[in-house]
């Protein structure tokens, strides 16, 4: 059985988990930006439940990711102080430091974008009307109110449909991500099983070679014994025939 590098170095294991979690966080961040853009476009008075849920999931994922990156940063700092102690080259230490810096920079960019998104929402909610002293046009009252109400209902319905489509897309993306993860784990299991079966086949082949050698030796011994038995039987038959011939001659002489 072959041991992989990830099983020997804990840093690479945590790094793989961080990169996988970063990929999931990117999907959450993209979903949050889509919902935020739709909410900002419709000038909603307060954040929608979809936006709150997306923001909560994103902040939770970023918090967990930040903790893991902090652990990686501490590990890199320890390796930089004594690379030979951990059996690492300076190039490998530099690569790990760059990886941690890139992940941390992407996390900071996401957090900064969240703060900007909150500022845009506050600005849109705090915007004052152009001029409160101007009275509304009388022509807007009456039958015109019904048309504007229908347009508001239509805009609200369209927004709900878009939110529903976004939730379905996020659900499908999560399903695809989980399916890919399951396939990867199955591939790893299949690889380990194939290695085990290959090792078992090597053992069986070695045992078969040993048994074949023993069988060949036994066959040679058996053939030798058979040849000796054949020589002995032939001698006995010849002796019997000679004795019978002598007996016949004696009987002929006597008679």
TrEMBL record:
UniProt-listed Gene3D superfamilies: 1.20.5.110, 1.20.58.90
Oxidoreductase among keywords: no
Lipid bilayer topology: Single-pass type IV membrane protein
Residues spanning the membrane: 233-254
Main location: Golgi
Occurrences of domain T-SNARE coiled-coil homology (ranges): 163-225
The keyword Membrane appears for this protein: yes
UniProt keyword terms in alphabetical order: Coiled coil, Golgi apparatus, Membrane, Protein transport, Transmembrane, Transmembrane helix, Transport
Entry's Gene Ontology BP terms: Golgi vesicle transport; protein transport
Entry coiled-coil feature ranges: 55-113
Cellular compartments annotated: Golgi apparatus, trans-Golgi network membrane
Region described as Disordered: 114-152
A GO CC term attached to the entry: Golgi apparatus
Similarity section: Belongs to the syntaxin family.
Name of protein: t-SNARE affecting a late Golgi compartment protein 1
Organism name: Pseudallescheria apiosperma (Scedosporium apiospermum)
């Amino acid at each position: 059985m072959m041991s992989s590098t990830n099983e020997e170095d804990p840093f690479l294991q945590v790094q793989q988990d961080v990169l996988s979690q970063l990929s999931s966080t990117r999907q959450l961040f993209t979903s949050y930006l889509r919902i935020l853009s739709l909410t900002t476009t419709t000038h909603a008075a307060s954040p929608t439940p979809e936006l709150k849920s997306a923001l909560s999931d994103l902040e939770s994922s970023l918090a967990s990711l930040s903790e893991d990156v902090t652990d990686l940063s501490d590990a890199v700092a320890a390796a930089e102080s004594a690379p030979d102690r951990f059996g690492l080259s300076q190039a490998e230490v530099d690569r790990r430091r760059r990886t941690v810096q890139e992940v941390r920079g992407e996390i900071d960019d996401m957090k900064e974008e969240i703060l900007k998104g909150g500022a845009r929402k506050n600005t849109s909610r705090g915007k004052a009307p152009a001029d409160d002293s101007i009275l509304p046009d009388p022509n807007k009252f009456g039958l015109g109110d019904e048309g504007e109400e229908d347009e508001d209902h239509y805009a609200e319905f369209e927004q709900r449909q878009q939110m529903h489509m976004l939730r379905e897309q996020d659900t499908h993306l999560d399903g695809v991500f989980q399916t890919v993860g399951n396939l990867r784990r199955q591939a790893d299991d299949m690889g380990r099983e194939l290695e085990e079966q290959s090792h078992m086949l090597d053992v069986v082949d070695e045992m078969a070679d040993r048994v074949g050698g023993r069988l060949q030796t036994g066959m040679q011994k058996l053939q030798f014994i058979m040849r000796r038995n054949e020589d002995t039987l032939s001698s006995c038959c010849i002796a019997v025939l000679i004795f019978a011939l002598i007996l016949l001659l004696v009987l002929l002489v006597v008679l």
